[in-house]
Write a structure and sequence with these properties.
There is one protein chain. The protein is of the alpha+beta class. It folds into two domains: about 5-85; about 90-185, no CATH class. Helices cover about 45% and strands about 20% of the residues. It contains four helices and six strands. The strands form two sheets. It has a three-stranded antiparallel β-sheet, covered by helices on one side. Strands 4-5-6 form a three-stranded antiparallel β-sheet. A hairpin with a 2-residue loop joins β2 and β3 (about 110-115). The mean pLDDT is about 85. It binds zinc ion. Zinc ion (ZN) binds next to loops.
C-alpha cells in the first residue's frame, strides 16, 4: 500500500468524524450535508475501485474506515431528523384557560414565562393573592384583574397563590398537549 493512499483514507476518516460532530453542534451547516454525503459516496466508490484494483488494505483498516464513516453518517442523519421533527406543540403558545387568555414561550420542552391577558382588551392582567396571606380568609385563591376594564376580576384560580396559579396553568397546558386538545386551538 502506498503511503499516499493510507493518508487519504486516514484524512477521509478524520474528516468524516469531524463533519459529523460539527453538524451535531452547528445546525446552520445543514446545507453542507448533501455535499458531505456526496463526498462519502465518492469515498465509497473510490474504496470499491481500490479493492477491485487489489491494493488489498489490511482488514482492520477497512473496519476502521467503515466505523468512522458510519459514525459520520449516523450523526448527519440524527442532525437532519432532529431539525425536521420540531414537535408540533412548540407552535402552541397561547390559549384561553380558566377565563383568561394565557400566553407562554418554550424553553426546550418546558413552558416558560406563562402569563395572562384580558380576553376583552388584551391588557396584561395583574394578580391579587392576598387571600393566601390573610389569617381570616377561608378560601385560598389568586384573582387576575384587568386595570383597563375598571379593575374587574377576569379570572380566579382557587387553591393557592400566584405561583400555584401559574403552576396550575402550566399543568393544564401540558394536559391539553397530552390529550391532543391543543390541536383544536
Ligand atoms: Zn380588559
Amino acid at each position: 500500500m502506498s503511503e499516499n493512499s493510507f493518508k487519504s483514507i486516514r484524512n477521509g476518516a478524520v474528516a468524516s468524524v469531524i463533519a459529523g460532530i460539527v453538524l451535531l453542534t452547528i445546525p446552520v451547516l445543514r446545507g453542507y450535508v448533501v455535499s458531505v454525503i456526496a463526498w462519502l459516496w465518492s469515498g465509497l466508490v473510490w474504496g470499491w475501485e481500490a479493492m477491485l484494483a487489489s491494493y488489498s488494505l489490511p482488514g482492520w483498516l477497512w473496519l476502521l474506515v467503515f466505523i468512522f464513516a458510519t459514525i459520520g453518517v449516523v450523526n448527519i442523519y440524527i442532525t437532519v431528523k432532529g431539525e425536521q421533527e420540531e414537535p408540533e406543540f412548540k407552535k402552541y403558545i397561547e390559549d384561553f384557560i380558566y377565563g383568561a387568555k394565557w400566553r407562554w414561550s418554550w424553553s426546550g420542552n418546558q413552558v416558560s414565562n406563562a402569563w395572562c391577558y384580558c380576553p376583552r382588551c388584551d391588557a396584561t392582567l395583574v394578580y391579587d393573592d392576598r387571600s393566601c396571606r390573610s389569617f381570616h380568609s377561608t378560601v385560598r385563591k389568586t384573582d387576575f384583574i384587568c386595570e383597563n376594564c375598571g379593575h374587574s376580576t377576569i379570572a380566579s384560580i382557587t387553591g393557592g397563590n400566584k405561583d400555584y396559579a401559574t403552576g396550575a396553568i402550566i399543568r393544564e397546558i401540558e394536559r391539553r398537549i397530552r390529550t391532543g386538545e391543543f390541536k383544536q386551538h
